[in-house]
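It is worth pausing here to work through a concrete case rather than discussing structure prediction in the abstract. The textbook approach is simple: state the sequence, then state the predicted structure, then interpret. We follow exactly that order.
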Amino acid sequence: MAGLPAPRLPGRHLALALAVATGRALSEEWRASRPYRWVTGGPRPDGFGIQARDYRPADRDTGEAILAGAFVLAGQSLAVGVRGDPWDRPSPSRGFAEALHRFDWLPHLIATGPEGAAEALRLVLEWRRLFGKWNSFAWAPQVMARRVYNLACAGPLLAARASEAETAQLAADLARQARDLLFPGDVAESAQRSVAAAVAGAALRGPAGRKLLARALTRLSRALDVSVLPDGGHATRRADLALDLLFDLQTLDDALIQKGQAAPDAVQRAIDRLAAGVRFATLADGALATFHGGRPRTAPYVAAARAQDETGDRPTPTELGGVQRLDSRGLQVMVDVAPPPAGPWSQTAAVQPLGVEVLVAGHRLISGTGRALAGGATVEVGDAGLGRFLSGFAGRALGARLVDCDAAVDVQRHEAPEALWLDLAHHGWMRRHGLMHQRRLYLDLRAGELRGEDRLTPTAKAQGPDGRHFVPYTVRFPLAPGVRALVSQDRRSVLLRVEGVSDGWILRNDALDIVVEPLARRGRPGSQLVMTGQRRADSGARVRWKLAPARQPSGEARGS
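Step two, the predicted structure:
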């Protein structure tokens, strides 16, 4: 097909996967060896010094549940009994096991007071007895980085209840794990590993702590240059990962101030940039935008990081990190206007080009989910999808990266006294269908309405003998949790209501058909609006829709 990219060579990821898998196997064999443990085991620190402060809000209820004998992590629970042992029994899921070994429970348990700190010390020492030498799962870098960070922040509080011998063991273990984090690894994890090691170095006393801190800060400065984009976005394009890195850097900055040491310029620059990125991604409900598999986080969680932002309420930019923002008094629209991240940064990326998130009166109405095209508020042509996620051997070696996705995006923004609008296009359907998806989003500031138009425009000669066969297309709008939809009898409008809100919104459309379908969401089932149609292979298609307040009764409607 003229003008389309050349076919890709098959198996190009296999060689890289083989190299990475071989290197990882050799790395793990070396890291598990006695000589490596000896290398990373010294010099021994002189206990704990400053109290590193984690600005993340702790949940006392979670800590109280642990004291009562139940661990609630990653959306699942494990009953162990009072002073029970979570380490000697299987976890309910891999996510639970990762959270358990990351010590995600530690700050919540300590927040309960002296009893919680004493129980935390017991659990940490028991973990040390079983996993302290080496374990491929517990010592995986992405698991160990969070454990090191949590231990560094809790260390002085644990040491206050420990014997001298136990304190020496805790400090030595923390130093050894932090040094291991500085071992070469995945570039996408480098900043997380380095900042955790730096916080540990700041928390430990003596020459060992100072040497560890210096090494970690050098690594961190290099990692931040590639992890944090100049405008404040994260290289993964996930706002929640930007927020978590901001929290970690805020902790490090505070720890260095306590030590009378200035943070490196790269750290200060990254804090300023990430703070701007988090401000931009914080929506009207106080939570974050959720593009590319990101979690919204709770409003108090986001506010805890923004409380440390000393730049004040600066004007919000219109675009940051490949996301455009349209704001009016009652409507807020976020639009993904950049290609998905590539390479190691794409392990959580979603292939949902031109996807939108919509909030009405401070409540989420439309919000994509997952990584696949079918979970995004965008258009799908045919049923073959866009790109693919690595699986099998390549996926195990390289992670579930997004590959084979040519989703270049064109963006034009327009502003007038009473309107904002975007003219967008992405080229992801060029290879398979010779189509360009064009999306216009028009925010009427006076009427408080969002008008949309999705076009499928042919850009190359149609394949096939005559180009007259029909190709189905779908426009999807995943509804946020708690949103109910009622489809009118003529199937030209849908009444949308947010749980707990009396006012409704009407989505009108001229699609061939519209239905409400179930939608799998993490933690809570949901639904989505699905508008369908068909186009001839040699011609285009258009769907127009409008989202407006339900200012009067919508007439007869029925559930779907």
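Step three, interpretation. The first helix runs from residue 12 to 31. The mean pLDDT is 91.
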